[in-house]
Amino acid sequence: MNALRATLGLLQRLLLPARPGALYDRQLVVLALSLMTVGLVIVASASIPEGIALAGDPFMFVKRHGMFLVMALGISWFVLQVPMARWQHYNGPMLLLAILMLVLVLLVGRSVNGSVRWLPLGPFNLQPAEFGKLALFVYLAGYLVRRQSEVRERFIGFMKPMAVLFLVAVLLLAQPDLGSVIVMFVTSLGMLFLAGARMVQFIGLILVGISAVVTLIIAEPYRMRRVTSFLDPWADPFGSGYQLTQSLMAFGRGSWLGEGLGNSIQKMEYLPEAHTDFVFAILGEELGYLGVLGALFLIFALAIKALKLGHQALVADKLYEGYLAIGIGIWFSFQTFVNVGAASGMMPTKGLTLPLVSYGGSSLIIMTVAVSMLIRIDFELRQASAQARVREVA
């Protein structure tokens, strides 16, 4: 474990050298832009057959993805100008807006593959679940600051945010979107744990959560088929296990160095959702095991940076910024784990994107906003530290 940490630290210093006097963390920017670049390249490769089949345009999806990238970077510039105190002040209205959007999508949303998850806004389809994740974590960070002692000392303080999560979960399950509910549940538990909630409460809630997930899986035949196909996909390779077996074939063909960029066979409409939920399998097929390790290094380096930043903020007594940064770090790392686990057969498919890599405008924009918040938190910490040094000198 120590050797792994030393190796990761050496790679970080060599590839992403820190600059103590900078106004912002260049490593965060480089990591995010690197992931966006990887995503643009892999989406361009993986989506060519789908673009030809749907519109006769091999670059249809990469054009859209490029447009989403431009939108995400433009919105991120605006987010960088917003002080974190403003997010803390408006965390309640932001959550209410997310809940209204989740209700609205059930009323007038667009249905795709039996799920009603998108609000049609002309050429762009907005997925409220992605905004709901960020809104919940922004709200929960504010709640933990306001009610810190209540969360630590009283059961009701622990259950209030769980009640909010339950309301959001009900709306998401009506779409249905169990994957987003699980990500929200795990991230919220992590934030509450770090805020000092009692261990007994966690054990009870985890047991309730596991029981609820099992019940939801048993209640829906399609979820049950996903679980059974995940346990033994080769038992029905042309039915319920088709997607996973094709994904495993992609990883197998990739071997150590891959087939080469653009040379995937599975993307030729053998692997469904090759440019969205299963883009990691195409990455593995074309770039091999080394490419997979490189992509995972970038994502988890970003998550670790977020967790470290959250720790620094908590030490500096910036509780809101600390809880939010830690929440974003848990969110990114767990969603990556679920996406990669589904693509590699370690867990059932959940329909979650690979952060900053998969095709999908809503996910890309919201996760870019989250990274922008991390950069803003780091900027404010550096600014406060510089002012403190000036006061000490004076």
Automatic annotation (TrEMBL):
The record's annotation in InterPro entries points to: Cell_cycle_FtsW-rel_CS, FtsW, FtsW/RodA
**Annotated keywords:** Cell cycle, Cell division, Cell inner membrane, Cell membrane, Cell shape, Cell wall biogenesis/degradation, Glycosyltransferase, Membrane, Peptidoglycan synthesis, Transferase, Transmembrane, Transmembrane helix
Cite the annotated pathway.
Answer: Cell wall biogenesis; peptidoglycan biosynthesis
Q: Which residues cross the membrane?
A: 30-54, 66-84, 90-109, 202-219, 287-307, 319-337, 357-375
What PROSITE patterns is this protein classified in?
FTSW_RODA_SPOVE
Q: Quote the EC number.
A: 2.4.99.28
Q: EC class of this enzyme?
A: transferase
- Per the UniProt entry, what are the Gene Ontology biological process annotations, in alphabetical order? cell division
Its principal location?
membrane
**Subcellular location(s) of the protein:** Cell inner membrane; Cell membrane
Q: What is the reaction catalyzed? A: [GlcNAc-(1->4)-Mur2Ac(oyl-L-Ala-gamma-D-Glu-L-Lys-D-Ala-D-Ala)](n)-di-trans,octa-cis-undecaprenyl diphosphate + beta-D-GlcNAc-(1->4)-Mur2Ac(oyl-L-Ala-gamma-D-Glu-L-Lys-D-Ala-D-Ala)-di-trans,octa-cis-undecaprenyl diphosphate = [GlcNAc-(1->4)-Mur2Ac(oyl-L-Ala-gamma-D-Glu-L-Lys-D-Ala-D-Ala)](n+1)-di-trans,octa-cis-undecaprenyl diphosphate + di-trans,octa-cis-undecaprenyl diphosphate + H(+)
**Highest taxon, organism lineage:** Bacteria
Q: Which PANTHER family match?
A: CELL CYCLE PROTEIN, PEPTIDOGLYCAN GLYCOSYLTRANSFERASE FTSW-RELATED
Q: What does this protein do?
A: Peptidoglycan polymerase that is essential for cell division.
Q: What is this protein called?
A: Probable peptidoglycan glycosyltransferase FtsW
- Tell me which species this is from: Aeromonas bivalvium
Coding gene?
Answer: ftsW
